[in-house]
Amino acid sequence: MRTLIATLGAVLLLAGVVWAQQQAPEQPLNLAYFPKKAVEFTHTPHLKEAGLQCEECHHKKVDGKIVKCSTSGCHDVFDRKDRSEASFYNMVHGRGSKDMQSCLGCHKEAAKGKFKSMGRELTSCKGSVCHP
Ligand code: HEC
Ligand code: HEC
Question: What CA–CA distance (Å, rounded) separates 42 from 32?
Fold first, then answer.
């Protein structure tokens, strides 16, 4: 009986954890913070092909929840010239602090390794997956 209760408890706990987990949106997200160069971001290739974990991008939770990169107090400065950690442009292109994770920084690494065949598609300004 005791083991049964313990097992039941463990199952419920696990279900609770899974239930509480957030899902990555499947539909493309329009990152239109710089309207002229809006970028379509899709989670699926990053999770499936690139095999990334949520935390690699969502490195900080707010009130226990995954939030947008652009959330107030995170990367909420939309000035292309700003080189601080708060700069969204910087978060994407990584022109500021060297150890700051950026979209382009990872794409450059990926293009040297497993994703060599995508090469310029991942790294160039024009004609890339980001700015087609
Ligand atoms: C390659 C980077 C990356 C990875 C990995 C990633 N995300 Fe995201 N996620 C983003 C970006 C970029 C946005 C849109 C940010 C914005 O608009 O500021 C986003 C947005 C979201 C949102 C929408 C938040 C809102 O309030 O609208 C949720 C929820 C989310 N991600 C969950 C997840 C989960 C769960 C995982 C892991 C299974 C995950 N993400 C993995 C980059 C990533
Ligand atoms: C830690 C690594 C990493 C980070 C961070 C990352 N990417 Fe990627 N991204 C990849 C890899 C690897 C691929 C190639 C996967 C594929 O398409 O097969 C990819 C593919 C893409 C594609 C093409 C796939 C598609 O949607 O058709 C776009 C667009 C893209 N990334 C945008 C972004 C943006 C915008 C950000 C930042 C908000 C970002 N990525 C952050 C690794 C990363």
Answer: 14
Q: Which domains does the chain have, with CATH numbers?
A: 23-123 (3.90.10.10)
Question: Atom 3 (ligand 2): residue with closest C-alpha?
Answer: 106
Nearest alpha carbon, ligand 1 atom 9: 68
Per-residue tens of pLDDT for the chain, all 132 residues? 676 667 666 655 555 555 568 999 999 999 999 998 999 999 999 999 999 999 999 999 999 999 999 999 999 999 999 999 999 999 999 977 676 789 999 999 999 999 999 999 999 999 999 999
Integer Cα distance of 15 and 4 in angstroms:
16
